Fold this sequence. Notes:
Order of helices and strands of chain A: HHHHHHHEEHHHHHHHEEHHHHH
Shape of chain A: globular
Distance between the termini of chain A: 22 Å
Oligomer: heterodimer
Distance between the termini of chain B: 86 Å
Structural class of chain B: alpha+beta
Strand content of chain B: 15-25%
Largest interface: A-B, 67 and 74 residues
Amino acid sequence: MTAPGWVQLAVLLVSIVVGTRLLGPYLAGVFSEGPGPGGRFFEPIERVVYRLLGVDPRREQRWNVYALSVLAFSLCSVLVVYVVQRLQEWLPLNPSGVSNVPAPLAFNTAVSFTTNTNWQNYSGESTMSHLTQMAALTVQNFASAAVGLAVAVALIRGLVRRKRSTIGSFWVDITRGVVRVLLPMATVAALVFAANGVVQNLSGGTSATTVEGASQWIPGGPMASQEAIKELGTNGGGFVNANSAHPFENPNGFTNLFEIFLLLLIPFALTYAYGRMVKDQRQGWVVFAAMVVLWAATAALAVTMEVHGNPELTARAIDQTVTAESPGGNAEGKEVRFGPAASGLYAASTTGTSTGAVDSMHDSYTPLGGMAPLVNMMLGEVSPGGVGAGLYGMLVFVLTAVFIAGLMVGRTPEYLGKKIQANEIKLVVVYILAVPLVVLGFTGVSMVLSGPLSSLLNTGPHGLTEMTYAFTSAGNNNGSAFAGLTGNTDWFNTTLGLAMLVGRFVLIIPVLAIAGSLVRKQTVPPSAGTFPTGTPLFTVLLVGVVVIVVGLTYFPVLALGPIVEHLSL
Amino acid sequence: MSDPIDPTVTHDEEGAPVLTHVEHPEAPVEENPLKKQKRSMVDPAIVRVAVGDSFTKLDPRRMAKNPVMFVVEVGSVLTTLVLVRDVFSSTVTTNDKVFTALVAVWLWFTVLFANFAEAMAEGRGKAQADSLRKARSDTVADVRRPGGVIDQVPSPQLQVGDECVVVAGGLIPGDGEVVEGIASVDESAITGESAPVIRESGGDRSAVTGGTRVLSDEIVVRITAKPGETFLDRMISLVEGANRQKTPNEIALNILLAGLTLIFLLAVVTLQPFAVYSGAEQKVVVLVALLVCLIPTTIGALLSAIGIAGMDRMVQRNVLAMSGRAVEAAGDVSTLLLDKTGTITLGNRQAAAFIPMPGVSEAELADAAQLSSLADETPEGRSVVVLAKERYGLRERELAGAELVAFTAQTRMSGVDLDGRRIRKGAGDALKAWVVEQGGAVPPELDVQTSAIATQGGTPLVVAENGRVLGVIQLKDVVKQGMAERFDQLRAMGIRTVMITGDNPLTAQAIAEEAGVDDFLAEARPEDKMALIKAEQEGGRLVAMTGDGTNDAPALAQADVGVAMNTGTQAAKEAGNMVDLDSNPTKLIEIVEIGKQLLITRGSLTTFSIANDVAKYFAIIPAMFVVVFPQLETLNIMKLSSPNSAILSAVVFNALIIVALIPLALRGVRFKAAGAAAVLRRNLLIYGVGGLIAPFIGIKLIDVVITALGVR
């Protein structure tokens, strides 16, 4: 890596720590009882929303009502996005005159944006009208992220509150999440993007004749505004097909770094808010540290492998050194303005955060470089994961770690004074089992059916990786594409859509049920006999449990995919 | 505000007890001084029975209760069926047949070893139950009917409320209470303790147990338990584990293990399509072998043995836990309520010093004190004689012609009249009145000394002779040896000790400091104990206590761990969830340790079991696919000699590790009283890191051996 590369990395790390420290307390305040920060300004806006929704903000919900609210809200979202796509041809704001989206694709896209996945089986600029992009897709970029926030906050309440029955009001949480967190931050971020050259207009695009005389159509549209929430809400759905590799979405090194920062910001900051809300900042830092370790490890793998490039080329005495003049490394599928290091960092960050935006083509990575984003998703999106989803995912792993190792100190395992018992473990098992079930299940079936197999670009281990990547991305609600797989078929539109639904709601329901179970419990006061969860040792244990549980589940498919491919080099 | 005397009030407005905290500097924690009973692990009789049981336990209906081992059994059956098919096939090579046969055999061994572990754990309890059964010999009871008629009734036909007359040499026909008389009773059949105990009507020593023998005198026992539901019956079914219920933590752990089994089932089942795609379709035998190696068989096999052994360890210490749930709760306890008398201090106060009045020598006081106590058979009286001998070499003397004055509730003093000397000892105000009555004067020094003794937690006994106050004997509670260390250990484990006493706050404070308890509750009434337990539980803490009296029963029932003394009343024994046959209240501390050890053993073996999987993947995955992808040989970091030997080695290791860990499961992992952080660090290192490394070594060694034996 070059000196500027290291400087970028240092700036990013410092910004994340500072951002976590600054944003964390604000987030904690937003989701606490009472008016919260900026209440005088925001509350009038929120009251309008409550009146429109017809909810009483003071009325809290039990976990099952909270879960039903999440489901009802998400179902409505899917329907709206679906209907808008199916009717966009006749609706306004369709300057380029795109036609209605076919049913299977519309289903896939509606599910994809509602579940915070943003898997795109289409090319945005040529499939979606501006209305669809703004009123359907971008709205979901806000809403799905706010749902994640709400669920995480509900789980925290379950841990903090004693002998209560309610875990907050979903309608208040989602409203505050959008109004006080996502909208203001996205507005600022959109202005930063626009100021740095990201396109923002309502044009239907421009037809141009190139120097060579060929005709080219140059897309236009509200990209900066979508770019901001796409990263901030860990959504990842690009306005254009090339996503953040396209210079209109991500014009330069600064915007690239700023995007990485944005997509990491809220997931990391939530750990601080968590510490604040459970009134023990060490608990927050432990989760933060575990996330950083996993993120840094996968980023290091991706960056190292990409910077080193292809060993076959090295063997033929071809210079792949990264210098200021030459991007070097494994250059295939990467933008010259980013180079292999920044691309690898982006790849690890976008997959570690369930974002799925890409600034390079992961399919063209070296085998292990491409395995890094794959592993990141397999971890279950906890490094640091999606907005809200990362925190609740990591907390489920915390409960698993506490349960496995907690018995070793000679007490019924407890976390933050709450006993972890059969009911919680049952729900944890459902959570941990759901995603591998759809990922391995659908991949397994697809690998032996000739139809799905014909969608693959490659054969051999790389083909297996392409297929696994697609379902891993959908099942873990990441949405990044490995490329190399033609996803817009009925089979994939359906199965990937189902994988996304399971990966979202079969996880959210147990998480809320855990919150509902914990919130009723009494808190055991800490003593010298309490299993310590605020220590570096617990961080190590937590990372170990994540790696072992995931590793044991996916090691066979990784061995037959990227690992064997790497060993063949 | 009920207590105007002292600022350390013991009751607040609501009447809830207010604890007084005692600070203790941290002391180094030492190894548990109580030695653990050691018993031979391998009793040939038990092993023989256990081997047989291992096979009867193969019944799938029984196996289904343990999802992990059930999966192994199904895998064994599947492999055996494949073997039967292959044996008669001409296309399968001999080498493959041998491989399939070996995998099948070792899978069956895995199941059998698990059953053996459980049978071993049960065997020890069964042996104990058999010896108890012998004590349950039926007898004919002499039932006293109204009007004094004696009916002969066989003991199994006794009714609750029957009053039986038992004479010396007779067996007590059933559980009951002594309603008349006093007798010495041999309870060795139940407690193993040969020294007889006194049982008498009224008070807290009235409970008798069926099957014990009256050694002297005659008592009338009112039957309180139906035949078949006696203490002995319950005890037999408990040690036998006849209706053993899974405990809450065990249930939760089982769910997790079942979940892991499902995940691995998924990983293995989906591996086949990937293998087919990769052109390396796998044999069923190999997939079963991989599955069995991955699912947590080690802990799955030993889980129930660990639970049974935990109960058994309680029985070894002569504690009967009414349920496994109670044993588990003992590990979770964070507050111990300990009665001062008998638990923290020796039962009685003892003379500690002679404090003479001005003008009286200490020797003179000691002489008078000794004389007044020679005839005093109370422990306090004897301790005065002992102290006089220790300090002044005063031998016991013959009291020829002496007139003894016995203690009465009215005079509140005792003494002796000898050669014109009238010596009295007793409570301060009683003696003062006597001295004045004799025409003497009370020195002002007396009140100073008596209140000084009271302040230090002692009891002053005033000694006077013929109207002259000689001085004061200081009686003190004597704290049992080693208590401070035990409380330090408990503190290190995060367990708070609270001393309960009827003493005034000052006395209580002094003893609490000396004994090293964390808090004390002074001037405690029975309802205060109950309120304290409720307050602790309200705060999320689990409480353990011991008790023996009938007025302890509600608190014993309320406590999470209520240990009743066997000498206690029937009501107390029924209210608690454990009975200590030795009636040693200090044992509460050991009970907590056993509870913790049980949970630690489970957690450690679970961690070990899961950590083992890493090595097994490195053994099996390359072996499965190295034919199609020779480059995967790089992952064969153990350099196992062939694919078949690699898979077989993993299977064999997986089976043998169960056998290797049976002693640990039965004995429990080594437990050292320490804080959770230290315990975690230690166990994570041994069972976590050890669990990662051990199978690499074990599998490699097995591979070397079976390769030498010709498997390839």
